[in-house]
Write a structure and sequence with these properties.
Elements (H helix, E strand, L loop, with lengths): L7 H8 L10 E5 L3 E6 L7 E4 L13 H6 L13 H23 L8 E5 L5 H14 L5 E5 H7 L6 E6 L4 E7 L2 E2 L5 E3 L3 H15 L1 E4 L10 E3 L7 H10 L10 H4 L15 H10 L5 E6 L5 E6 L1 H6 L2 H5 E2 L4 E2 L1 H11 L2 H8 L2 E4 L8 H14 L35 H25 L11 H11 L6 E2 L4 H10 L1
Parallel strand pairs: 1-4, 4-5, 6-16
Antiparallel strand pairs: 1-2, 2-3, 5-17, 6-7, 7-8, 7-9, 10-11, 10-13, 12-13, 14-15
Length: 480
Amino acid sequence: MASFLDSDYYKRLLSSTAFQTTPLKLIFEVSPESVKSGFSGDYFPKYCNPLGRKFDVIPFGFSEEAFRIKLNEDVLYQIPLEIEELTSAKNILVYEFRKIYEKKLLVDPRTNKVVIVEPSPLLIPIKYLLVKVLLEDMLVPSITFFPGSVMSLLTLGKMEGLVIHFGSIETTITPVFDFRPLESLSISSSLGKEKLRVHLRDQLIKHGHYINLSSESNTDQTKQKFTPLILTNELCQHIIENLVFASPLSPPKNLVSGELSSNGTVCGIRSDSLAVWCQQSSIATDLYFSWSHQNKTKIKCFLPGFVREHVLDILFCGDSENDISGVVDLTFQVIKNLPVDLKKRLSSKILVIGDLAEIPNFQNRFMSDLMTRLINDPKCEPLSRTASLLDDNSHTFNQDFNTPDINNKSDSDAFEDQGQAHDSKNTNKETEKMYSNSGSTFKSSDRCWVGSSIAVSSKIEGFELNLENYQDFFKGLLSA
């Protein structure tokens, strides 16, 4: 008897399109700080490679070992972009993408198409440089760009909302409607993780101290003031990721508005009057923690409680001394500028993404300040009743249950319907109680990448750039 494996049916089945697999697309989430990489269909990025640049121009014939030592001194580029940064950025991108392909993903770059998701829109020169590196140096078949604001909403199955992305060098507020970002109504701010690091460093130099634990004699362990040399990017990043939280209390507006106080001093985010208020209202405890530098020096750092609690105020309230509005005011401005028919629809679907959004109480504080801002404006006051976070689980199960109309039914039927409605209400209350304390399905920092993975798996495509058309595509943009 002939085997099934030798039958004509099995041979036709193998030759059908169902068994002809195409190479998976590679998804890269590129920001000035890092590159997240993985394959389409995955539910989280497999690798995250930090990007860095030197302060001087790196020649093309650089030594790999010397280059690696100074890789993470700063982000890939700053805003405004300097011409000297493009040369070093090209070397860094070539180095990092070769490492990603050869040591992380273990695939031939010529076999897989690439999707690049932008959490915040990349600068045109950096975008052109990225495409040139991937097409000419890595020889990828094609590149497609996806907007991060739209992709992050896709993780929640939504096609519209207001997306606030807290990035490394900027924060963008983008309204999305009908699966399209409304770029003409979006706003960007220079407030981001870099500004937060600078502000944290200033506060620790002013209010913190450390003890050198490497000294052999105990009598020499005196308190020393922090210096910029001690407060490296790695130390500040460790504090931001693990030791700070957003205060539930917002500082008084007159202390951060940049106005003159009664004693003639200017009030602002760095003023002494605000520091006094923060110390008096703080609910956080002071903290000591140990830290080891690259030169093996061990120190014990003192982090004041009010700095832990209120260092994030610069993002919410802004920096009046440098004429930088807070993200809350900018979000209010975006909502106010929306068309009348979109104000309520988008303000009730707010999504906060980025690394900073994972800091404890960050999103609750943001929404609290935004609702206060809406309440204080007579035209926007009704929006404060419907404004909410899109990924807040407690909003998913809010339902109204109507009791049956007893006048139109018999007593027995009405009693039976009332019992069913009561049971249904209790069931939904239990469900709400079960999910109200559950976490989000995806991390706020990974939503852009995960949304792109969902989009590619769903056969959502975009304009593909390749070696033949990418120069023509960027010709008009670069000349502008």
